[in-house]
Amino acid sequence: MSHKPVEIMIDNLVAENIFFSVMQRDILKGVTIRADKGKVTGLLGRNGSGKSTMLQAMFGTLSVQECNVFVNGQMVKNAYGKAGLVNYLPRKPYLPGRLKVADALKQFGSDVAYILLWFPEVEEDLEKRINELSGGRERLWSVLILLLANTRFTLLDEPFTHIMPIHIERLKELISIKKVDKGIIITDHMYRHLLEISNSLYLMKDGKSIYIRDKQDLVLHGYLSFLESD
Ligand SMILES: Nc1ncnc2c1ncn2[C@@H]1O[C@H](COP(=O)(O)OP(=O)(O)OP(=O)(O)O)[C@@H](O)[C@H]1O
């Protein structure tokens, strides 16, 4: 009797072969990116290297020359439209400005008690409208709402921007807990935070992605000019 090894498929979302050219410039030259349940994938790159474009192509809201998206090997079109599949934090403000925070939480079905357990000080925002919040608080609420939402994958474009260090530290802990339930891709220029929380880290350069093993690689590939001491 032969014993076939049991293959366990880890929930994954893959955007393969992304090509994007604009105004005769090739921005992405056949790049692949993937999110796996249980992992954080980090994406670094200089301004204009195509990080946001990749996330939008994967989400399905940007039309690019080529991009094939698969969920566990099955091709999907318009990933954003599939209930419970994936959510995406754009670089720009995400939540509707006129909405009260408490109403936004209700709309997204967020677990307010759980959020306040992690960030008790943000309770003061609940009755405020989104456009009355500081930039950092608006970003924090947006990240929390998407991270805690019941989707299999979450794509976060610059989630740490404007957020104060003490909240970034807590957010990183929360991301490490949430990745047990979902696959997460994060792009941010705060490379130290990405180095710390990513299970796989890539650098976008010349339209391709380079696998990053450690900080030295970031110098080698010209993302950092030198290694700062810790
Ligand atoms: N609609 C468009 N028209 C012209 N150029 C575009 C368009 N969309 C994207 N680009 C260009 O594509 C390149 C990649 O942009 P993208 O926003 O993906 O970069 P990024 O790596 O996210 O940059 P940053 O770190 O500055 O956020 C940029 O040079 C941008 O100017």
Automatic annotation (TrEMBL):
It comes from Flavipsychrobacter stenotrophus. The keyword Nucleotide-binding applies. InterPro entries: AAA+_ATPase (IPR003593), ABC_transporter-like_ATP-bd (IPR003439), ABC_Transporter_VariousFunc (IPR051782), P-loop_NTPase (IPR027417). Pfam families: ABC_tran. Transmembrane segments: none annotated. This is ABC transporter ATP-binding protein. The keyword ATP-binding applies. Residues 13-227 form the ABC transporter domain. Keywords: ATP-binding, Nucleotide-binding, Transport. GO terms for molecular function: ATP binding; ATP hydrolysis activity.
